[in-house]
Sequence to fold (621 residues):
Amino acid sequence: MTRTASHNAVVRELADLLHPRPRFHEPFRTACEDPLFAWHSGLTADERCELAYRRLRMLDQHGPGATTLVREPLRLFALQEWAAVVDPTTLSLAAIHYNLCQGTIRDLRGSGEHLEQCLDELARADSFGVFLATELAYGNNVAAMETRAVYDPESREYTLHTPGPRAVKFMPNTGLGVPKTGVVLARLISLGRDRGVFPFVVPIRDGAATPGVKIRALPEKPGLDLDNAVTAFDRARIPYENLLPGTHSSLAPDGRFHSDISPHQRFARAMGRVTPGKLGLAGGHVAAARAAVALTTRYSHQRRSSGKRGRACLMDHGGHRSAVLRELARVYATTFLVHEEQRRYAEHRDDVTGREQRIALTKAYATWSAAHTVTVCRERCGAQGLFSVNRIPEYIGLGHVTVTSEGDNSVVAIKAAQQIVLGVDHTHPPVPGVGPSDSDMLDPAWWYRLIIARKERLIAEARKSRGESSTSSFETWSALEPLLLEIAHVSATALALETMLRALGRAESPTARHCLHSLAGLEALDEIARSRGWYVLEGLMGEPEARNLPKALDELRDRIAPHSRELVEAFDVPQSVLRAPIGAEDYIESWSELAESVKPRDDGQARSRDQVRTRCTEPSK
Ligand SMILES: Cc1cc2nc3c(=O)[nH]c(=O)nc-3n(C[C@H](O)[C@H](O)[C@H](O)COP(=O)(O)OP(=O)(O)OC[C@H]3O[C@@H](n4cnc5c(N)ncnc54)[C@H](O)[C@@H]3O)c2cc1C
Fold:
């Protein structure tokens, strides 16, 4: 086998381990090579937003169709990964249009076929789906929302109304003047009684806002181009059939209401699509982080700096190399974790509580990690990391979306950790191949034992504090939140390590095994090193081992450094999709070509010094 052939074989093997279903990705990857996805100079935020809608349409045309995307989550997750890499605003649109809007309608429309026409329109993207839950005064506490839908048996209609300024729907992407169909969450009132929160299908705009719907734009959000707006209802009339009751509740035409489940469960069902939504956003964000690491690694191998008589490249500098390789390991860990949880979700492997808990932990861990990775990459590319054409700044904006929407990271992580403290823990089945550990610092059993020990002791600490507390339940839990966040983090780290070690168990070639072992070690030992003082105080690690941690980390980095190109090639994000100058074979040449397409800042007119002075000093009108 030639050197190139063995290089290709390792890349292929790693790619297969990372992306288990390439055929789901292929159509979207091809679509992203279309010029529509190239970087465009000088667009306004509104123009970039419009472009995102056109891009979503194109991805849709290349895919299996909306109905399949909504039914087969792994295909939608694949679309979301490519959307995130080429245009993060398109990722947000896809999440809302397919999953939150069409997914909720399909899941909860009950047995009737009445909403078929509306679903057809959405499936053809003749209308875009939006989701209106959050209100100005109700974010993470959205279950307490005030918007009301009062049912009138006479007219067989609901009157959808915003009772005051606190209840305006905040943040839905209703701003752009294209047809939009909304899933609106509101309190159902029938026969004078509040029946809890339900979703309703509401035409929001057909170009202009529909009667009874009032839309106001929101001010600028730097780095985020979505057309988020404020939307209120002024006695909008909605037909009886547009309630989405699900299979456990029903409203008779005469207004009689029946439900087998509690109001809390009804709310959870109305928001049910937020669970796969977390996996879609996390998968997209991690895909963007992979692209950022791939670009940074490629660039770091060709960019020259001081040293070796001017021949040293960035990767030759130990500090730079160690930062980039750390993010390479992190992004491998988050990729294995997110893909594993996406598969578990698609195969219905967990019960409802287990699924919610694992997905919440995964979303928080993966999106916080990806945000960190992208920020490090931005800095490690120097000034090049500032330009949209190099993609990385767009991914920084994406981080602000993913950590807050579809379940705010802190809130969902705290809730998942609370359950763990209460004894409901769905997170750690034993990893095959990890037996009793000795103290070899490069042995996966050692890493795993320490991380699980930390998790168990933190849980014990939380239980003890709870037991000793004399304050109210809210105050006790509230005081424990920093500890709960740490429990969530360590639990997710253990999950990520397990998925990496399982991938290591499946790897066949010595090079792939060698790389995956070192990447898992970097991820685990760095996590352990972060709390090494605690480990020593707890008697879980001796002082000599604590002192040796930096050396062990150096050794692992040295092992993967020669393979960094193969490791990022396995991400399979080609330059034909990224089109970033720093990802090109020759970034100098690529910048020279790019200069032609950058819209000039001046209008080309000659001005006298006086004219220039006036232009720069006169107050804006
Ligand atoms: C880009 C973007 C797009 C969005 N699109 C939509 C959309 O299409 N439709 C829609 O309905 N909504 C949308 N949202 C709104 C989103 O769902 C909310 O932002 C989210 O639910 C968080 O609510 P909040 O922003 O009001 O934060 P808040 O509730 O004000 O929380 C802020 C912070 O307070 C703390 N906190 C709050 N509650 C708790 C708690 N219980 N425990 C511990 N700490 C807590 C946390 O630190 C949290 O980060 C979007 C948001 C963003 C950022």
Remarks:
- DSSP finds 22 helices and twelve strands in the chain.
- The chain has three domains: 3-106, 112-266, 274-429+440-569.
